[in-house]
Specification:
Blueprint (H helix, E strand, L loop, with lengths): L1 H15 L8 H18 L6 E5 L5 H9 L4 E6 L2 H10 L3 E5 L12 E7 L8 H11 E12 L15 H10 L2 E5 L8 E8 L4
Parallel strand pairs: 1-2, 1-4, 2-3, 4-5
Antiparallel strand pairs: 5-7, 6-7
Length: 199
């Protein structure tokens, strides 16, 4: 069932690729979340290598480039059509087809990993968290923004978590949670984790 859900998600984004940038959700949801994530990252350090997991059309990476023009930018997404748009609109980044659960990057190869409004689409969220931690250098940051619900309500949405559940997932992946600011755009919370130096 999980594989079917994941396949349907990818098929949806394949169909959505050509019109995604024009969606009403860009200004109402994604842009405010992107700006909040970048504000949180910029208040902590200046990254040299940035990865966007579930990068879609590259919109967040274009904003990252404005913040840190010298940074090396990478994006990973499972939808071919999204990557076509991303490569066309974001020439300053390199893009890879892949999933959060199997990132096509080397160990400790980035110092800032980002994921915005894609975590609830991941087939194996625990594996994806471990992958995010794997590609981070010790002391690097993982900022994940996704829909968050109260603990008493999450049982109805098994792919959406409470803030406490997200904290546990980060810790299990070897990431020390620094903060969980939000909500942003009403239902989104950012979880900020730092990779432990001993992992």
């Amino acid at each position: 069932m999980k594989n079917t859900h994941h396949t349907l998600d990818v098929e949806l984004f394949e169909r959505w690729g050509s019109t995604y940038e024009r969606s009403w959700m860009q200004q109402r949801l994604f842009d405010p979340v992107h700006l909040a994530v970048l504000h949180q990252a910029a208040s902590r350090f200046k990254p040299a290598r940035v990865l966007d997991i579930g990068c879609g059309s590259g919109r967040l990476l274009r904003k990252v480039h404005e913040y840190w023009p010298e940074a090396h930018l990478s994006g990973v997404d499972p939808a071919h059509k999204m990557l076509e748009v991303a490569r066309r609109l974001t020439p300053e980044a390199r893009f890879f087809m892949g999933s959060g659960e199997a990132l096509p990057l080397e160990n400790a190869s980035v110092d800032l990993a980002l994921s915005t409004i894609s975590f609830h689409h991941w087939r194996d969220q625990a594996a994806g968290m471990r992958e995010g931690a794997r590609v981070l250098r010790p002391g690097g940051f993982f900022l994940l923004a996704d829909f968050t619900l109260p603990t008493w309500f999450v049982w109805q949405f098994p792919r959406v978590h409470s803030a406490a559940q997200m904290r546990v997932r980060f810790e299990q992946a070897g990431l020390n949670v620094q903060a969980q600011p939000g909500p942003v755009a009403r239902f989104v919370r950012i979880t900020i984790g730092m990779k432990r130096a001993d992992d």
